[in-house]
């Protein structure tokens, strides 16, 4: 097993962007085009439902439209994350820019939905336990919530490598993640904390750059209005700029956040001794 470094894994996404910038740029453009297509498809579906259902069906059409948008967002995220995992773990697999929607991506979706279900169950149990212990005082509910948060974090870290493991062909990756993370919880916690700090820094930098860019194009006469989210009716130019910027930023943050998991899996599982740079195989480098 190679030595696992939390700091090296945390910056794996930045190394990926630096060394594979062509592929990353392709992923960002793909997500932008998919977002535009998803918006068009959602509008068409909503208009069709309104035409069929007639007036009074706004709530139903809103729910269906939200479902279509949610499924599209989930599929887009799975494709982008799958491309990251494929580049770092299975670069020899043929795929245009490592993008594909197949069984591996469906495994990622299943894992995310499972994590959401488990999270909802834990929240429900914590709320029920807090209500049951409420007669003992406010401190009892607080203690239960803290214990539930610690347990949920520990559980998330133990199964954090399930995605890369599943992508590497190890079922849903739950058993493999449990085995690989044994005795590594604190190291993975440090990696996750550093990754979150770096993501926050990227978000703040991008937000500041967006404010400056939109201000330069539309004027700095109302700085407070620049910080808020623009509406199409009030500021169509700013609305479009913000929409494109966020459509590009969201997958970038996803890439930077998921690459450390693949790097950690590659280091802890050590599938090949010639892995370098926090999980990037030499043959994965683009010419």
Give an account of the 3D structure.
There is one protein chain. This protein has a domain at 6-102 and 185-284. The chain is 75% helix and 0% strand. The protein contains 11 helices and no strands. The longest helix is centred in the C-terminal third of the chain and has 34 residues, at 185-218. It is globular, with a radius of gyration of 22 Å.
Features:
mainly alpha; 287 residues; globular
- Main sheet specs: none
Would you count the extended β strands for me?
Answer: 0
> What are the secondary-structure elements, in order, as H or E?
HHHHHHHHHHH
Contiguous helical run count: 11
- Low-confidence stretches are 271-287
Tell me the strand percentage band.
under 5%
Short description:
The chain is mainly α and 287 residues long. Helix content is 75%, strand content 0%. The chain has a domain of 197 residues.
Topology:
Elements: H1 6-10, H2 12-19, H3 21-53, H4 58-89, H5 103-132, H6 138-158, H7 162-167, H8 174-180, H9 185-218, H10 223-227, H11 236-269
Helix pairs in contact: 2-3, 2-11, 3-4, 3-11, 4-5, 4-11, 5-6, 9-11
